[in-house]
Amino acid sequence: MKLRRIDLAVSIIAAIALWFYVVNILNPPITVQFRDVPIAITGEADLESFGLALREGTELKTTVSVKGPRNVVNGVRTEDIILTVDVSALEKGQAIAPVHAQLPSGVSLGELQSPNVELTVEELVSVSKPVTVVLTGSSEGREATLLPGTLTQMVVTGASSQVALVDSVLVSGDLTGSELDVEKEMLLAGVPVDESGRKVTGVRLANDAISVNAVLYQTKSVPLSVPVEGSVWEGASLTSSNISPTIIIKGPASLLSQISGIEAEPVDIDGMYESAVLDVVPKIPGGVFVADSSPKASAEFVISDTGSLTFDFNTEDIVLKDLAEGLDASIILPEGYKNVVAVVTGKVSTLRTLAAGEIAPVVSAAGLTAGEHLESILPSQNISGLTVVYSPDRVTVRVK
Fold first, then answer.
1. Which residues pair with 41 in a beta bridge?
2. For residue 148, is pLDDT > 90?
3. What distances in angstroms separate CA 313 from CA 2, 320, 342, one per listed residue?
4. Band of the pLDDT at 128, cuts 50, 70, 90?
5. Whole-angstrom distance, CA of residue 143 vs CA of residue 251
6. Quick one: DSSP state of residue 282?
């Protein structure tokens, strides 16, 4: 039993000695694969000197196999492998560029999974984009405010398709904890963003940072007075109106204390024939601003879809038709009437196209004989969608 244990120990020692010999003395060659090795772009400055630029794509990576002695390869790290693509000589359009590998001493390249990469070369453009400043730090009764003088436009440079994605340059500043009415100057970095607010990569900004002047102001709600001028179109009917009664303003406490109300520019509704919501322009004193938290001031006017028009006609305006040949006739209005009034009701859109001649009063004398006859008044035309009521609605026709 003891002998078996001695044999087992000798076997283990022999195996270890053999492994040590193979690994450290013979040091056999091995191949190791490295995944997601980044590929760096070189020569972009030269490319831009020709008015060209690379369109931003996905980050370039590939898999690399290196081979060499075991003890050397085992010491290689991903960051020791340098892959580059030279774009200095590429032309506009789709281009295929070879990947160059620089490896640590003592190892060689086994396999490069992507020996070439496909790139898109576009025109290099510089376009001015609006600067959007977003300030945080507002709280109940206090509002972070951007002061005049901050840069409003910034030039964005890059490949044409990338620059086209840029909607604005976003600048963010924080006034949390700032003292009221004390201006604060901040040097802030801009971020090119698209319409959804996502960062656009592959472009550069003309300014590394933007000087932003901001202040934390007190807010105050005050009555808003909005004069209304004119009247709606004669055939329309104003059923209701809803005008912003208050407005929230902001500014230095010393100025706000002097303001008890704000007046707006007059709102003109003269000739209005359909419902509408009109903008209200408040007259804001110097040094004071409309608070961002203030609902947009507006004036809503609700006009009925149906309306009415009134026309006056003299006796001479009444047309007598279909009078038998050889007869003569005259029209006599009822006692107390000096003219004929026509009230037309219906859709306002139809009323607006109506002409007085279309509803001129007409009396039919068809079949009438000598004597006096009480006949109804009818419109000269039948206007679809409109109702015409005459007062009086009948006249006496005296036939001779």
1. 85
2. no
3. 139, 14, 8
4. very high
5. 9
6. B
Residue where a domain terminates, one of 61, 86, 114? 114
pLDDT in tens, 291-301: 999 999 999 99
For 166, which DSSP code?
A: -
Question: CATH number for the domain including 201?
Answer: 2.170.120.40
In whole angstroms, what separates CA 277 from the centre of its chain? Answer: 20
Cα separation, 113 vs 263, in Å, equals: 72
End-to-end CA distance of the chain: 157
User: CA 66 from chain center: how many Å?
Assistant: 52
Domain count, the chain: 4
Range of the domain at 283: 219-306
Closest CA to 222 of 272, 256, 271, 255: 256
63: part of which helix (H) or strand (E)? strand 61-69
CATH number at residue 30: 2.170.120.30
Q: Tens of pLDDT along 111-122?
A: 999 999 999 999
- Mean pLDDT calculated for residue range 336-359: 92
